[in-house]
Amino acid sequence: MAKPLTRLLRKLCNKMGYDLLRLQKTDIHPEAVSGLGRGGGFDAFEAVAPRAVRQLDIYLRSCARVEIFAQSRGRFIGVPKCEVVARCLNSLVRSIAYAQEQGLETPVRLTVLDDHSSDDCVARIKAVLAKAPCPTQFRALKGTGVGASLTEMYRLARDEAVDLIYFTADDFLHEDRAILELTQSYGLLAAVLKRDPVLFISDYPERYRHVYPTHILLGSHRHWRSVHGTNGADTLSREILLKYWDLYLAFGQYGIDPNITEENTIDRIYQEVPCYSPLPSLAVHFQHFDTLSPYFDWQKWWERSRS
After folding, report:
1. pLDDT (tens digit, 9 = 90+) per residue, 162-184?
2. Cβ atoms of residues 21 and 2 within 8 Å
3. Terminal-to-terminal C-alpha distance of the chain
4. φ and ψ at 44, to 5 degrees?
5. Mean of the pLDDT values across residues 50-68?
6. Which among 168, 221, 224 has a CA at the least distance from the CA of 193?
7. Neighbour order of strands in the sheet with 198-200
8. What torsion do the CA atoms of 303, 104, 217, 231 make, to the nearest 10 degrees?
9. pLDDT of residue 78
């Protein structure tokens, strides 16, 4: 609301044929430069120099043996799990290709960690990986189960990852823009926050069942809202992984120790590290209708993911 002196000055300016407009300034980065002339509604904002992302390492856990872990009901789509794995992986590969076509210079590396899928399904996974426009590797899990795959994934990332890490699963269906916006938004949000955040790529419907105050920030192409919990499909820096290693390792007991949940392991990280999800979603958890994100055409995404 305008102050009395501002209102007075505006009246005087109006009488002389001028208007007095307020230019919004945001002190969000010490090296910010004027955003004037950017267009698209951003003229009133300061431009931000994003945090450089040296490399994006993606780790995808796959398992075609089990339809849905710890659940008796099937997926709403009604197709074999191997089809879900192949299509979701293909959507991720498409997204990597799109990012590179749009000029993303961040190197990307994709690793699939598979939990004893059938030979036919492994062949389909490798066929999709062969089309990826980035270095890939396929690793067969030594143990079995969610806990074993989480633990080995975290250890691989700890030992191999360079900078930014995206952990995902075989039933996350990605929009073509997902990797581009995920990488660019991470660099932008880290610069705005002056610290590395964690990003959860899906706008989960659970956020709207239990309403709580949230922060809204501008990403590279859409808004991102603060959230307080994830399910393990996270994007984080290697520095965060190392700092909170004990909590990630504890989450690796998920499915082994019945007392282990996200709430008492990785969600504790977000008490100290800011965590954000996109509005609308960049990927969806392709399990049930009640896990699908709002405002997206799942049928269109599903058809586009056909390998």
Report:
1. 999 999 999 999 999 999 999 99
2. no
3. 55
4. -90, 5
5. 90
6. 224
7. 136-140, 108-114, 56-62, 164-169, 234-237, 198-200, 275-279, 223-226, 216-218
8. 50
9. 79
